[in-house]
Amino acid sequence: MGQVTHDQANLLLRLYELRREPRMRQAREWFIRDFSASSMEELFKKYPPGSEENASFRMVTSYWEMCAGMVNRGLIDDEFFFENGGEAWIVYHKSMEFAVSQRKGMANPLVLKQLEDLGTRMDAWRDRTAPGFNERIRERFRQFAEAREQREKAAAKKGKARKRGKSRKA
Questions:
Q1: Is residue 1 included in any domain, yes or no?
Q2: Quick one: 56 and 122 in the same domain?
Q3: Per-residue pLDDT tens for 39-59?
């Protein structure tokens, strides 16, 4: 365990203050609950530029990319951050498939690279400190994704039924 300085503690507290801003809270909640895209094409189809969801995606990923860059440069001790920054790992986990696609599509190997580097170290740290935890969380995410897909299918089915009902009345 590294020696944590007062400056590191203050920086971490400042990062937490930024997370409390109402629009950021809303974006974080949406991202954790609903974000699902594995490519740029899927992102733009589901969350088109100019939409609230696209803005939330950009807000959350850019925030955690910034935080990851600070930790990666040693401004905050890894273990101190890992003990207190579980959401960074969630954003890393949910965005990496997308990031790989975006890196290729934009010919930019740095897209969410800070977050990936941090998440990789955090994975290893969790494997050491809480064996089995990462896999348990990944399984929970798979369950959430299945439930979200079922909700989306049900909503689409309901929307189609509503459209059929309106066209019959016309």
A1: no
A2: yes
A3: 989 999 999 999 999 999 999
